[in-house]
Amino acid sequence: MMSSENELEGLREQIADTTREIIDLVAARNALAKKVGELKMKGSIPLEDAKVEDSLVRLVLGECETKGLDGQTGLKILSTLLAEGKRVQGFPAKQQLITPMMMSAKAQQIEATGKKLLRLDVGEPDFHPPKAVLDATSEALYAYRTRYAPTRGIPELVTAVRQYIDRRHHFPVKDSEVIVNPGGRFGVYMALMSSVREGESAIVIEPNWPAYKEGLQYIGARAISVHTTLEEGWLPSVDAVQDAIRPNTRAIVLSYPANPTGAILAPEKFRGIVEVADEHGLTVISDEIYTDYSYAPTPSILETPAKKFILTASFSKTWAMTGFRVGYTVSSEENISKMMKIQSLIVTCVPEFIQRGAIKALGSDPEVASNAAAMRERIDLASRELDAIPALQYAKPDGAMYIFPQARNADFDSVAFTMKLLEEKGVTISPGTGFGDYPRAFRVSLGGSKETIVEGIRKIGELLA
Predict the structure, then answer these.
(1) Is CB count within 10 Å lower at the N or C end of the chain?
(2) CATH annotation of 100-123+366-464
(3) Are 75 and 199 contacting, i.e. CB atoms less than 8 angstroms apart?
(4) What is the mean pLDDT of residues 128-141?
């Protein structure tokens, strides 16, 4: 008995010694990284080098395979080491981005003081939910449908989602491949969590909704940005996506019609990107929240299915149910099982009375058509107003509910302009830097009335004149 205890104690001492050695090696690595940083500063060499990081990823994965270690463990360790290296190299703190959510919060604070603003910042249509939705939600409340619901969603809504998908995309879905979640944002976060892990990476096409990169950051994963330009119609090439894939890339996020540009990827290019994803074993996360606000052929991952995919959708835009916080996700049974664990842990379920309303939304086709037609009118109207501002250029959106103008002036600062527009004209927009590296651009939301859109864009023109 004593010999076993002595052996155990000896092993514990060896573990402690090995841990000290690891700490010593990390300190030595940091010292080397600091010297590298000093040399970079002297030579005006960029601090980040993707090729160097990629070679380290390959090195770590190769060593893990040789030593019989889990590659994911190696990537986690490397992620920590890279972060430490950047810290000691004196990487400048990232500038605080002004996201659409931040602009909305700032505008609400100002409005609370009684000041009237022309809101061109918020991604929320001013339409009302269908009456059938309100009636069903109210009836469910008065029927005391207020207890915990199944994490997946009530069977009636899961069935309604399956039937809706079959009717719209002719794609058969099982109950086990669907989950009802509290809004599109949470659906996207669960999609990222179930497909990308700490130390790994995912591709994001920019400009794009900042929540994708933010979600990856919280997971401890890296967002690989594919930068697009106005001249390209804000659309990536298949080759650009191919070139962005890293040794630790696990997913690619597609979202068309896009926020903030309203661009739509042509079906053949969509297929090309899906084929690249399949070749590299990537999960395609397709955020299709704006599908009903489409005025050009719009591909769906259900019509061009990848080998591994996650579709996220929401009731917020199409049916003007932003405050209801309800959406759904479609994926493999394995992925949905992961998401159910996440959702059960964090929010338990979507309230049943909200789900009862969502069932009625899926049958409210006339309201959807009306909302889509109204949004197209707003895009046309905003485009005519922007045509009258020589200082700006833009690509007319094919969908969604935004326009992303870009200043012709190469020195334009969209953050400074956004603040000046708010202070001097009482108009709110979202600066382009919130959607990627776009300091000359800004997002105009078309969620408000025609009068608000016209007056707001004309005041933009006045400030630029």
Answers:
(1) N
(2) 3.90.1150.10
(3) yes
(4) 98
Closest by CA to 190, choosing from 313, 63, 357, is 313
94 torsion bin: left (phi>0), alpha (psi -120 to 50), beta (else): beta
3-state secondary structure of 307: coil
Radius of gyration of the chain (CA): 25
**Res 51: pLDDT:** 84
Q: 């994965």: which residue's tokens?
A: 61
Q: Report the candidate in 294, 452, 255, 300 with the shortest Cα–Cα distance to residue 376.
A: 294
Which pLDDT score, from 0 to 100, does residue 251 have? 98
Q: Where in the chain is the domain with CATH 3.40.640.10?
A: 146-363
Q: Which residue has tokens 């959406």?
A: 327
pTM of the model: 0.90
CATH 1.20.59.10 residue ranges for the chain:
16-88
Domain 16-88 has CATH 1.10.3900.10: no
How many distinct helices (H) and strands (E) make up the chain? Answer: 15, 14
Locus of tokens 């009802």:
180
Residues 6+ apart with CB under 8 A from 26: 81, 84
Q: Which residues pair with 399 in a beta bridge?
A: 294
Determine what percent of the chain is predicted with pLDDT higher than 70: 98
| All residues at 6 or more sequence positions from 168 whose CB lies less than 8 Å from its CB, including other chains | none
Cα–Cα distance, 263 to 102 (Å, whole number): 24
Among all chains, which residue has been given the structure tokens 């998908």? Answer: 165
Write the class of the CATH domain 146-363. alpha beta
User: Between vectors from CA 43 to CA 439 and to CA 31, what angle results, nearest 5°?
Assistant: 100
In this predicted model, what pLDDT tens digit does every residue of 267-299 receive, in sequence order? 999 999 999 999 999 999 999 999 999 999 999
**pLDDT of 424-463, one tens digit each?**
999 999 999 999 999 999 999 999 999 999 999 999 999 9
| In the chain, ranges of CATH 3.90.1150.10 domains | 100-123+366-464
